[in-house]
Every structure is written in structure tokens, then in C-alpha cells.
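Q: Here's a chain of 167 amino acids. Please give me its 3D structure as C-alpha cells.
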Amino acid sequence: MCIRDRVLKSPNHFGCLNSLLAVFPDATVVHCYRDPVVALASVCRITEVYRRLLVEHIDLEELGASQLEIWAAMADQHMSQRQNPALDACVIDISYEAINGDVVGALREIYRRRDISFDQATEQAVIRWQDQNPQHQFGRHSYSLERYGLNKAMVESAFANYINRFS
């Protein structure tokens, strides 16, 4: 069962609630919040991997600085848009840890907020999918802020408003 007939899963929608809800006015946005210190290191790593497909040399410190600037600006935009009660009402906040720790519980909450029944068949399908697709089944990715010339204090400073709301 699908909550709606369209699911968009992309962190690139972060900071774009106005546009997203203008196109999909009945949408529910599930905001999976995660510690920016961990998330930004992951973003830098995946950006590095993609860029290596196109170019041989990558300035990792420039990559880190640019990703910090881009994602911190999107976080600020997201936080600003969440000040609008009409936009904020369309968002369900669930932590990355909650989803990984209890996906059924997280989905129950999403369905409850949308006033949709979360039946036994849906629950069993979720559990079956999760059992067949364990996290890290193809290995763990490793990444660090330091590889990209960043550190925890830099990220925490750039994402202070976001961290204050979602810590």
C-alpha cells in the first residue's frame, strides 16, 4: 500500500517546501532529520564519488567547503519556511535513528498523522522488506569530515538553528 500515488525521496527537496507544496498541495513531507555532522560527511563522500566519474582530480577541501555552504543554506531556508504554519503543518518530523530503530513505529506515526489505516498486511510487508534488505548488506560506507577539511565545530556552527530544533 502506498500513502499516495507519488513518493519523492530526495534530500534535494530540503529547503524547497514552498515550491514542493505549490506543485503538490496535498503532499505530506516526511522530514527525516539526522545529525548534520554525520549527514554532511556522507554527502561529501557521495559527491566525491560522483565527481570522480567525471574528473580525475578533486580538491577535497573545496568540495567540503562548498557542500557545507550549500547544505547549511538549505537548512536555513528549511527552518525559515517552517516558520509558516501552513507549510509546517504539512511536515512530519521523524529522526533517522527512529526510522532505523523502529521503521514500523515510524510508519505507524506517518499513517496516523495522515489519518490512514496501517493494517496488518502493510505491517507484514514492511517487516518482510526490511528483513530482505538489511542496512549495510553490501558493506558499510566510511567517511569523515576531516577528509574534506571540515570539523564538527564548523558544521555545528553552520547548522546551529537546525540542530537546536531537532537535537
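Q: Can you summarize the key feature?
A: The beta strands are 29-33, 91-95.
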